[in-house]
Design goal:
binds zinc ion; mainly alpha
């Protein structure tokens, strides 16, 4: 039963964060504005906005104008609901689990915005400090050295690379790896960076293969960093134990 609650909370917060990110990208007031269909602009009722269920019930169409709503929207809510469940399984029903889940929500929002604009908003980096600060206070088993090494190991390398080759990494990426490195410690932030490099590498190979890329093309790196960090947040609980 408690896991069903976690799933529901996950789906609702996923829906909220997606809507807030979507409005941020279109510069719409995301605190006061009411949700409406982007095509027919009909205001949506509460029963049109039930995460996952509304999409399935309406068979992926707007109730009013019958325009198709992307399945990505529903998969996004489902993905975040599963992320919430995994947090509960990995960390139990604890404040730690809630902080990790909030970190994941912020990271996903950062990834979407960076992919669209190539910039991670500083506001989201500041917001990330809250769950990371609480995690640092409530789980004192990680030593200060471990936190500091985590903070500088990848961000320091990226800053150095920026010195050698201008604009190799965005400033936002460096700040992100500093903050998350502090939270994860050096072992898990290195794992996160490796996953980011591998997945981004596979994507670049695909782009070259599909001839979508020129030599000077930049890709948004934050989505890969965020994916690596999210994987690493669960890593100690499952994946590293298997090694
Ligand atoms: Zn509509």
């Amino acid at each position: 039963m408690i896991y069903a609650y976690c799933f529901m909370i996950g789906a609702c917060s996923g829906s909220f964060v997606y809507a807030a990110t979507w409005r941020y990208l279109r510069k719409i007031d995301f605190v006061h504005g009411r949700s409406s269909c982007p095509i027919c602009h009909h205001k949506l009722a509460w029963y049109d906005l039930i995460p996952i269920i509304s999409w399935i019930w309406l068979r992926g169409k707007c109730r009013y104008c019958k325009t198709s709503i992307s399945i990505a929207y529903m998969l996004y809510e489902l993905g975040i609901a599963i992320a919430a469940l995994l947090c509960a399984f990995a960390y139990g029903i604890t404040i730690e689990a809630a902080c990790v889940f909030i970190m994941i929500l912020i990271l996903i929002s950062m990834a979407i915005i960076d992919r669209a604009t190539m910039v991670i908003p500083d506001g989201l980096q500041l917001l990330l400090i809250i769950p990371i600060g609480i995690l640092t206070l409530i789980s004192p088993e990680m030593s200060l050295t471990h936190h500091l090494l985590g903070a500088v190991s990848i961000s320091g390398f990226m800053a150095l690379m920026n010195r050698l080759v201008r604009d190799s990494f965005g400033g936002g990426d460096v700040k992100l790896m500093y903050l998350c490195g502090w939270a994860l410690g050096w072992r898990r932030i290195v794992l996160a960076a490796l996953i980011a490099v591998w997945t981004a590498g596979i994507y670049v190979i695909y782009l070259i293969w599909a001839k979508h890329v020129q030599r000077k093309t930049h890709i948004a790196f934050a989505p890969y960093l965020c994916a690596g960090i999210i994987f690493s947040l669960y890593a100690d609980h499952w994946f590293l134990l298997m090694l």
